[in-house]
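Reading a protein record of the kind used here takes only a little practice. The record below shows the convention in full.

——
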Amino acid sequence: MMCFHGTRWMAVAAALTMFAAGAVAQRGSGGVRVGVDRPAMTATGSPVEGAERSSGVSGPSLGYLLDASTGDIHLVSGIAGSSLAGSGVHRKSPVRVAAISPGRDYAVVADEADDVVFYAESFVRGDEGIALWGDASRVTHAAVSPRGDRFALFAASSGRVAIYTVRDGDPGEAQVFQAGVPLESVSRLAVADVGDGVYLIAGSGAGSSVTRISADGVVRSLASLPGAVDLAFFAGSERALVLDAAQNALYQADFAEANPTLSLIASQADGIEQPLAMALSGDDRSVAIASASMRRAVVIDLASRASQQIELAEAPTGMRRMNARGVFQLTDARSAPALLLEVQPDGARTVYVPRSEGGRSASSGRAGLR
């Protein structure tokens, strides 16, 4: 059992107990679809010191959480099922783009005033964070590498790319380059732990393509698909998963190869149906896939290919791993507390993260979880 100290944390724990009262959660099991009511709180997570440094509370943290209802990011104190989203971190214009590292405890945001700011947990005490980018073109996409040692910013209007390497909580100087040719509509940005470029999912005729922009500005299409919607790299390599909504299919490819080949990993038979987004677990052993139209999450074990389907209490707005091996943010808290998916070896369940305080009213123009 994990112990916490401090009267404020005891008050938070009591409030969470009251919040969870009367709710019921049901586990998912391999190959079986399950229903989940408004769930009770559960208790797993990855202990990290300094959960809420601004309050003086020390304990586990699930890291930063994007909340579209406040147009801000919030640091989550506690563990999945017994947690609370603290006050907003970016107290400027509402956030419209956010990239959050689960493993390195930092977040990068671009707001409606076009400020781009880096925050680490040590900045929560009231620091303004570190200003980034320094260019007139507007940041439209941001992404963090699997291990969190790097993140990238991209401006679709100019093709400008900036890659930052994070050391000891400092983003350092950016490696900046420009796409040598215009790009069609870009829906996703991704950056691997290795290599000198970034990867995009972009429109390509009637379909889509996985495209690489290298540091010399060369743009190269690596794979063509009818409806690619998400891209997730494995740690320490350029091997990745590609999710295609048009085919209800999950593929794997090694983009370090001269001619990458897509290998089918899972399909509609495994529960993938009209997928929206995906995220790899912290150990790269499983992948969680969200479907908004089906109000469903599918978790696939990449070694055994076994899958489990979890019916959700509300439609997911995306999928992002939190600061735990198998805890994922499913909704952006636009109209209710953020919904998390918690995956354990013996099943999966959903839990909520209540807010500690109100914020700005919701706006459809603000950032949503993708």
In short: The chain is about 5% helix and 40% strand. Helices lie at 7-20. Residues 1-57, 359-364 have pLDDT under 50 and may be disordered. Residues 245 and 275 are 5 Å apart (CA to CA).
